[in-house]
Structures are given as structure tokens and as C-alpha cells.
Amino acid sequence: MTPAVSQVLADLAGRVARNAAPNIPAAERAGELGLSALLLGLAAEMWDGAAEILARENADLRALLGAGAKVWDEDSRRRWLHALAEGRDESLRLSALQSANGELKVALIALHAELERRDDPAAKALESEVWRALVAASDRRRLSGSPV
Amino acid sequence: MEEPELVQRLGAYAAARMPQAQGVAVTEIARITGGASRQTYRFTLVWTEGGETRRRGLILRRDPADSLIDTERRVEFEAYRAFHGTEVPVPEMLWLEEGDTALGSPFFVAEEIAGFQAGTGPLWTTPYLDSLPALGRRKWTILGQIARADPAALGLAAVLPATQADSVWLRELDHWEGVLDADETEPLPVIRAAVRWLRANPPPPAQKVAVVHGDYRTGNFLYDTEGQIHGVLDWEMCHLGDPLEDLGWSFNPVWSFGRGHPGGLLPRDEAIAAWEAASGLTAAPEALKWWELFACVKGQAIWVSSAKTWLDGANRDPILVYPAWALIDAQDRAALKVMGHL
Q1: Between B72 and B233, where is the model more confident?
Q2: Residue B248 CA from chain centroid, whole number
């Protein structure tokens, strides 16, 4: 959820207040308020589950990185993945969960590329797990009106 | 710029471009919402000529402070002008202004093709539902006609950057991966995997270097209840390239609107058949798959740029938030689907 819901809601509050003024052209007001309503609807749908989605995704990512630490040959990379896998979400603020999520995804991208490069069964099995996790994450984030 | 000032300055600009006219005035101006890369206004120009009062509905497309898609407005203007009067229906272009003096930012003025729909909302309701297959056939026929067109004969080879049939894929992929690198606000594991696959599995050379519209999708043309298309719009990403790029973009699953067919209009095989018949080209499955996955990368680059633009603060238009919230996960899902994981 980028931009963050809290930032967008603050902006929309100002925008709605501005459109309450009588001198705003009708077409412009209709367009701005229509879009604002659309975003408010999306925010309403995302808001309740946002923390759970991020917390579950972070747990899945840590599990994958922990498995990755066992198959990556390079020491520095193993230590990096291991340290991330041992982490936990100390705060349930969305901004903190999102920040951790970003850090974990950077490592996942590196791990994924390494697994693609290799042919051994352990790497291929873990690569399949990565794809399953990416699909599961996408399923959890899917909005009701998603075209896909 | 407030609307009264815009009306006054636009009227003065038009008057200077129409020395034969007297009493030139801009009336009935209204902003058309929804465009994230240009500010679009509908207005009526009224003037007197030869003792007779005349009126014409026109469109003003002006650059905002920070647009979603960074393009030169000359590209868009010249693309429209090139296809005007051909079998590809487009509105007539009148004036292009690339400086900031007249209206504070570059703009162009075009004829308004009035009386037709552009947005996708009405399409899925009566009286449009029955015409969806005809509209789909027309849509991909016109896309084939764009692919068949000769860029040099249209004058576009002199305007658009040249490219080579065997390397155009790399130029496009480099460009859009560069946009991702510059603008992504959070890591994107699915799309980065897609980029790696695209680099590892290059497509065959383009059958020809063609005009690529760049954003040919349902919603970017004017249509009626009979399945006819009266104007192809939004040429701001027009370039020379592989004609399969446009076909792949039109098949991007995010443009299916949840209706299961490409563009929400027509089964995939029928769309391909219409495109092949009109273009005289073939859509080889493996090559088309490459361009469909590329479309997912390009789409994601545009959506993350939208988020970045909003976060940078120069443009806080809510239209920039919509793709970031509604389409980033959907685009990931589209990429997963094209790669066979969903």
C-alpha cells in the first residue's frame, strides 16, 4: 500500500474540504470527489486486513530466507539471509511492518535470482517454494475489484 | 492557473492563430477528469468570419506540473497528425505549443470528436453489451492497421527515434527496467523475476519496425453502440518498435476488466485473427508471450511511477494513487499468469 493509506486520507480530507467551496466548477468537483470516493472505498477494503497481510507475508518471507541460508554457498549471503530470517516484527504499526517487508523482499529477490541460476534439486525445490509464496502473497493482497 | 485566466489566455492564443477571425472567444470550458499524463479540457471556440458566427468544439491537452508519463507532446501531436485522414481514425490536430509563454506549460489543441464514449464504465451495460464482439473485432483490426502502416510514408520516421528490428526488445526492456529502478517505492519480486526471464529468453527479431501506439487498450478510443470506433486516443507513448508490443499490451490481463477476454471484448484467438488479417503479420505464440510479459513490466513501471510522482509531492492528483493501489498487485498477478504460475 504505497502511498500509505494514512498519507492519502490526509490529502483527501483537504481535497474534500476544498471542494465544499461554492466556486469550484461543477465538472471539476464531480471528478475530484468521484476519484476521492473511489480511493476511500479502496482504503476501506485494505485497511482492516493490512497489518495481518504484512505480518503473514513477513513470516513467510523469513521462512524462505531461512531455507535459503541453508542452500546458498556464499558465506556473506548466508549470514545476511540468516540474520533476516531470525528477525521478528517488534511493532505492528503498518509503517514498521512495511519497512521490514521491503527489507525482506530485497533479500528474496537476490535469493530468487540465485536459485534460478542453479540446477541442483535443493535449489529448484526452494525456487518452487518461492513461486508458491509469491502467489500466496498476491492472493492475500488481491482486492475484490481486481481485474486479475 | 485559475479557469478564468485559462479561458482568457487560450482565447488570445486562438485569436493570434486565426487572423481571418474576429471576436474569438473560448466558451463552455470543462476539465475532463481521468487523464494522469495530461490535463484535458473540452471547450467551444466561437468566432466571426465573413460576417458569420462560427463555433467549433475543441480539446485542449496541457502538461501538468508532473505527469505520469514523461513524453514530449510533439510525439503525441505528430502521431495524431500522421494518422489523420487514414483508415486509423484520430481527431484532427490544430495547434501545438511547446513553450510555456501562452498557457504556462506546453499544450496542443485538437478537434473534439463529440457524441461517443471513451471510458470503460458504460461498456459493460446496455446498450453497449451486444456490440462488444464487433467492437473487439474493430479494435484489433485498427491495431493491425497501425502495425501495417509505413512509418516513413506517414512522416513519423523523421519524428520518432530510429530502432532496429533485432534489438528493439532490448531498448524497450532497458528503458522500462530503468523506470522501475528509478521509481519503485518498494521491492517487486514478481516483476524483477519477469525482467530476468525476459532477458534470458529474448524474442525473435521484429517482423518489421512499425509504429507502436504504446497504450492501445480498451478505454483509449471513442466508441458507439454499434461497435464502431471513431477516434484512437492517447498517443503519448507512441514510438517505433515491434508491432507485437502493442498486441501484447492490449492482452495485458489488467485490461481484461475482470471479464475473462482480452480488453474485456473478444476471445484471444479472434483478437489475434483480426490483428493478423489487418496487419499482414503473424503473432507467433512464443514471441507474443514475450511481449505480453514485457507489457506486465511496462505496466508495473507506470504504476510505480504513479506512486512516486504522488509521493514526491509536486502533483497530488488522486488519479495518481488509483493505479498504485488498485493495479500494482493486479499487475503482479498478470505477470504470474503470463509466466504460468497462476
Answers
A1: B233
A2: 14
pLDDT computed for residue B34 by the predictor: 61
Set of chain B residues whose Cβ sits within 8 Å of the Cβ of A98: 186
pLDDT tens digits for range B194-224? 999 999 999 999 999 999 999 999 999 999 9
Q: What is the distance, to the nearest Å, from the Cα of residue B147 to the centroid of all Cα atoms in its chain?
A: 15
Shared domain for B45 and B101, answered yes or no, is yes
Number of domains in chain A: 2
Residues B106 and B177 in one domain: no
Domain that holds residue A78: 50-141
Same domain, yes or no, for A86 and A26?
no
Q: Which of these, B10, B171, B188, lies nearest to B104 by C-alpha position?
A: B10
Q: Of B111, B135, B157, which residue sits at a domain end?
A: B111
Query: Is there a contact between A148 and B334 if contact means CB atoms under 8 Å apart?
Result: yes
A146/B258 Cβ within 8 A: yes
Kindly report the nearest CA distance between residue B67 and chain A, in angstroms: 17
Distant-in-sequence, close-in-space partners of B156: CB < 8 Å, separation ≥ 6: B78, B79, B82, B211, B238, B240
Neighbours of B131 (CB within 10 A): 18
CB B27, CB B47: distance < 8 Å:
no
Tell whether A117 and A65 lie within a shared domain: yes
**What percent of chain A has a predicted confidence (pLDDT) above 70?**
100
First and final C-alpha spacing in chain B: 47
CB B128 within 8 A of CB B265: no
Same domain, B237 and B315: yes
Domain hosting residue B221, numbered range: 121-338
The complex's ipTM?
Answer: 0.93
Within this chain, do residues A78 and A10 fall inside the same structural domain, yes or no? no
Q: In angstroms, rounded to a whole number, what is the distance separating the alpha carbons of residues B111 and A84? A: 58
CB of B321 within 8 A of CB of B305? no
Q: Are residues B178 and B40 in the same domain?
A: no
Closest-CA distance of chain A to residue B70, Å:
20
Residues B11 and B152 in one domain: no
Contact status of A144 with chain B (Cβ, < 8 Å): no
